[in-house]
Each structure stands twice: as C-alpha cells, then as structure tokens.
Write the structure tokens for this entry.
Amino acid sequence: DSGVTQTPKHLITATGQRVTLRCSPRSGDLSVYWYQQSLDQGLQFLIQYYNGEERAKGNILERFSAQQFPDLHSELNLSSLELGDSALYFCASSVGLAGGSETQYFGPGTRLLVL
Amino acid sequence: QKEVEQDPGPLSVPEGAIVSLNCTYSNSAFQYFMWYRQYSRKGPELLMYTYSSGNKEDGRFTAQVDKSSKYISLFIRDSQPSDSATYLCAPGGPQGGSEKLVFGKGTKLTVNP
C-alpha cells in the first residue's frame, strides 16, 4: 500500500458528461501528480501541483482541470467526456517539488469508462 | 520519433531465467533514469533509480544506462514468478521549467514456474 488513496475505483459515464476524480496524497507529501494510462498511449503525465499551486503541466486537455486544496487532497475534473477519455487515471504524490527526480508514490487508480 | 521507446512484449520466460528489458530515448536533456514496476490492477511503484551512465545493482536487479547511445536496460537475474508485472522505463529531466518523467509504454513480463 503506497499510502495514496483515490476515489472512486471505477466510474462509468456517458459522452458529454463531467466527472471528478479525487486523490489524497501520502501523509507529509506536498506534491500531487495526475497521469492518464491507456493501452495505446501508455502512462502520460497530465499535471503536477505543489502545496496548492500548479507546478508543471503535461499533455492535459483543455477539457480537463485540476486543483489541490489546502488539506493537500487533489481533484481532477474531466468535462465534455469523449469515448477516447476512457482510461486509467493515476494520482501520485511526492515529498517536495522536484517533480520527476523524486520518488513518486502512485495510488491504485480510477478506471474511467465513457460509453 | 517518440521521446521514449520501449518494446511492449509480452515477454514470457521460465523461472530462473535472466531477463533483459530495454528502452531507447531521444531527449539529451534526460538526467535521471527510473524503472517502475506495475502489477496487474495496481499503480506503478519505483524499482530502480540511477543518475548516471553505468550500472547500478540492487539484489537481483541491475539497471544500466548508456547516455552516449541513449539506451536504458534493466536486467533481472534468477527471475521469479513474483516478478511477473509490467516494467516501465522512465527517464526524466528538466522540461519547460520543471522536472518531468517520461514513461515508456511498458514491457509485460510473465515468469512461468
């Protein structure tokens, strides 16, 4: 168990809808990362937050947004969902703001299916 | 050309075999090189981390980096059924003002008892 929790585990929704994925980092970790994993694209970095502030951006679509709250939990909002958004969404956390050079601890993921 | 290329396999070996997993990358800015292991229906977990060219050993696992040819390898000696997982190489470095990892697509390994 990495200490990172994600809810929900599974989500089934329809095209055009909006969903919110939630992540709680390990105790003491200030950075939260969001990743999307699909069979054809692999694990793609979306965005990093450090202590409430956006720190780095990856391949995140404009329909997607995220935030990190004062208690350090984070939410990833996906809107106007398309079939191609079906994927596993992982949250990871690390101690500091060094990003890729730090050990990232991954949660169990949220499996999103858009029908 | 993709930033990180990794043979997706799948790779199936008998227990006790030596396994070689490989990646190539194109970005010369990459400064550190990680291998993550992902069991089925779980999140990835860090397995090995190296900063420089050369070899780094940890038990049955050896990570090898050749920066001149932009080639990353992970060797598993005396492979065990518990090593069955997907292995993701992840080089990283400064990109756009922050430090980022770029993951390969992963190689699925099955070790048969």
User: Anything to note?
Assistant: The radius of gyration of chain A is 13 Å. Chain A has a mean pLDDT of 94.
